[in-house]
Amino acid sequence: MPRTAVILLNLGGPDQLNSVQPFLQNLFRDPAILRLSWIFREILAWLISRKRLHEAQKIYAYLGGGSPLLKNTQIQSKALEKALGKNFRVFIAMRYWHPFTHETITQVIAYQPDDVVLLPLYPQFSTTTTASSLKCWIETASKMGLNIPTRIIGCYPIAEGFIQAISELLHHSLQEFEDLSQTHILFSAHGLPKRIVESGDPYQTQVEKTVHAVINTLKIKLCSYSIAYQSRVGPLEWIGPATESEIRRLGLEKKNILLVPISFVSEHSETLYEIDYQYKTLAEESGVRKFLRTQTVGIHPKFIGQIVEFCHQKNLVENFICPTNVEKCICREVMKKSV
Questions:
Q1: What is the CATH code for 4-156+302-338?
Q2: DSSP secondary structure letter of residue 55
Q3: Neighbour tally for 258: CB within 10 Å
């Protein structure tokens, strides 16, 4: 029977406090993150990583001395491999820390698969995340001689299993609130500089599609809802509104908040520290009556089942979901190359 290697692509995170500075430097030297010439990018990456070191180490110390992202991705990997069966093996490749792409490709070559499925763990496509991870894999695989059929799951912002998983988790969390008419659902996604979105990046459009799909699935009538963006760094203008601003606004209205981390599929610093600690503290200080958040989809059966379905599909580019004015959609790029 043919053997398939499924590659889970993600950002990565430092495994100990001594790893924080090189992890940050790897992150900011990525041309998809800092869009500058090589020499300026290298200098800025070093400066930014040094400047942010103390604060970042404080975050990872709070989380137990390192990022939980790899451990949680390994849990997803095992659940997926079990669901796929014996002719599939699931690997993990991180963009900015171990296991690096070249380390994972070495393991894949040893497995000798007949084909590869690349699955970025970013539901909504962005040039700063999905495209960067895919580019790194494709270029490194070519250099290392891994030249076998490769299918790409470019994005899945409205995939049925993904939406059902979020909806079930959201519905469960809503039961914790007594008065839904005074409860606001705040969908929070990782932010991006505004100029990246204006250059044709489909990320914000896809985040909005995810939220609308969830709302339509749940048919929520009593709760209000909005979309906000978190994790802003640097002096550039970012897409908004900022999650902090929405929390303050809702605090003035004495609302309850159920925060839904709509762009994350596992628990890591943005959920466990930024949301659970920083935003919860801000909510208490701002007058929010009750603040809760939903869990990420993790190994929810509907989410894992959706990935299994993807892995069995032969043609992973079937429908365009981005508007025609969005130039940097991975589906369009794949279709252009296949014509």
A1: 3.40.50.1400
A2: H
A3: 22
Distance between CA atoms of 316 and 334, rounded to whole angstroms? 10
- What's at 166, amino acid-wise? I
Question: What pLDDT is recorded for position 338?
Answer: 41
Range 319-334 burial, b when 16+ CB lie within 10 A, else e:
eebbeeebebbbbbbe
* Reported confidence tier of residue 336, pLDDT bands at 50, 70, 90: low
Pick the closest to residue 264 from 185, 210, 305, 184 (CA basis): 210
Q: Is residue 327 pLDDT above 80, yes or no?
A: no
Residue 164 binned pLDDT confidence (cut-offs 50, 70, 90):
very high
The Cβ of residue 147 has, within 10 Å, a number of other Cβ atoms equal to 8
Query: Residue 339: what pLDDT?
Result: 34
What contacts 24+ positions apart, CB below 8 Å, involve 219-225?
Answer: 220/185, 222/180, 222/181, 222/183, 223/174, 223/180, 223/181, 223/183, 223/184, 223/185, 223/258, 224/184, 224/185, 224/255, 225/184, 225/185, 225/186, 225/187
What does pLDDT average to over the chain? 93
pTM value is 0.94
Least Cα distance to 266 among 310, 296, 237 occurs for 296
103 in a labelled binding site? no
User: Are the C-beta atoms of residues 257 and 186 closer than 8 Å to each other?
Assistant: yes
Is residue 332 classed as helix, strand or coil in its secondary structure?
helix
Residue whose token pair is 């400066």? 47
Please indicate if the annotation marks 268 as binding a ligand. Answer: no
Distance CA 116, CA 134 (A): 12
The fold for domain 160-293 equals Rossmann fold (3.40.50)
Start and end residues for every CATH 3.40.50.1400 domain found in the chain = 4-156+302-338, 160-293
- pLDDT class for 80, splitting at 50, 70, 90? very high
CA gap 328, 86 in Å, rounded: 36
User: Average pLDDT of 83-95?
Assistant: 97
